[in-house]
Amino acid sequence: MFHLSKIIPKISLIEHSVSLQIVRYKRKPIGAPKAKSKLYKVPEKPQLPKDELEELRRINNNYKNHMKSIKRFLVANYASKEKLDDTDHKNKVAYEDYEICAKINDEWNAKVGVEREKFFEGLLNKNIEIAKKKLEFQQFKKVLDLEEAEKIVRVVKEEAKGFITAENIDEAIEKALSNPVDHNFSIDLEGNRFYGRESVPEMIKK
Description:
single chain, 2 strands, about 60% helix, mainly alpha
């Protein structure tokens, strides 16, 4: 048996402080892998004898049937007692509650009905006002359109007086021949204009 003092050299406790802690796991650490000896080992499912398995099934079925019967008996017994004791009371409470709810509902319906009538009356008046304004605007626009159309007709009539028709075409031709108009002109370097193709320097217009 080796002593710890023989393995670890003596160190001054004042200069250095050494703390040793030994941990011994009672089971395999959590992060450790599966043992190689059990890596490919598949545990066998325990097989009960046939007579023992049949007996366990019989006991389990009897237990389930007994518990189901007890639950049904308790439910039927307590339900019948509560039904006999509380039927009249529950009916009375339910009827009173129904009357209260019906009264509240009628009051609420009446209040909502009044508000609904006011709302639709205001909506109707608003729609009537909008329709009147639209009708007035359409009438005003119609008058403006008619005045604008009459103005255009008057202008066209005034312009039509100078139109060339079959009746005054000869007169228009004689007027054009007697008063020739030449729109051609030339410009010199000083910006003077010379109108007509037969213009002379005396006809300069600044």
